[in-house]
Description:
The chain contains 13 helices and ten strands. Helix 4 (139-145) packs across helix 8. The chain starts with 22 loop residues before the first strand and ends in a 15-residue tail after the last helix. The protein folds into two domains: 1-271, no CATH class; 278-347, no CATH class. The chain is globular. The chain has helices at 99-108, 120-123, 129-137, 139-145, 161-178, 190-199, 203-213, 222-229, 245-253, 261-271, 279-285, 296-302, 319-332; strands at 23-25, 40-46, 57-64, 72-75, 85-90, 93-98, 115-118, 148-152, 233-236, 243-244. It has a ten-stranded mixed β-sheet with strand order 1-6-5-3-2-7-4-8-9-10, sandwiched between helices. It is of the alpha/beta class.
Amino acid sequence: MAEANQSRRREGFEQNAPGNPAVDKHASFSYEPLIPHVDCIRLLTIEPAELDAQPLVCGLSVVEFGDKPTYEALSYRWGDSDTSQLPLTVDDQECNVGKNLWDALHYLRQKTAKRSIWIDALCINQKDILERNRQLRIMHHIYFRAAVVIVWLGAGYSKYHDTVQRMQSRRIQAHQETAPAAADRPAISDLQKEQEDAADIGRDEAEMVEQLYDDEYWRRLWIIQEVGQADSLQVCFGRSAPLKWEAFIHFIRMHNKGSEGPIKLDQLRQSRLTGGYKLRALLSHHRHARCKEPRDKVYGLIGLADDAHRFPMDYAKTLIEVWTDVMHFTWLRGFFRVTKSSLSVHW
């Protein structure tokens, strides 16, 4: 069924898939099957290239979790209005990908070393419904076991590259100037430091921060799990060097933009240290998060919930059946008094 081909927050890969053509594979593209009855994934190896203009060449390999593979995972957004398709080669087969993913692959490609990374659009055979269901059930493990989860906000921020360079130089200079005498001065509170930083913001920096905070990426449902499960996070945008999640959040916080977007996700990450995630709360707090596939309003949060083990997930189910599963789950755990408004899923 067409709806079942939308296994994640993005549309399926078929050439004539409606809406959001993330990956357009030729009809002859074939996958090596996953190992039956074993927790395993495919990893994409990005071949190195000396020059940015060289074609993207990648390979896919099947690995078992039991072998403890080392890999990174990409968290990104497929552009809703991005219909452009750009070429790459995977396992000696040609395919096209959306521009945002193409940009991410170029950013991640190294000059001398291969890079192994899990990317849903290329590592899951979206034409195989059983495989999609199988990978869905271990999605939280995929992001949790990744050495680093890379948050890709897009190449559009390249226009701020010089601004980022000036920001970094200014902070390095300020540290060098104040470090020698730091021991002779009383400690300045974190709040005072943030106020001093905020007072020194330039126009371009303020504009960049505004766009980073309001980026459409933060409104996508699936990134809630991808960011929430990650043990280590890096944020990448434009041509700037990766930022550790903690540094990125500090940077956004010191501009006092609000409590949504990345700030809300950071609070989600902190909550796992104080009792974990409950499905009821996740459904309520993130009911406005966006996804193309309505079943993902529930399925996209199951992997985060520590009380939703063995929740039945199947893209072949109707929306009524999925809602029934949610209510049955709620009843079994003694939450039957939950009202429709408190568990509103906004199908």
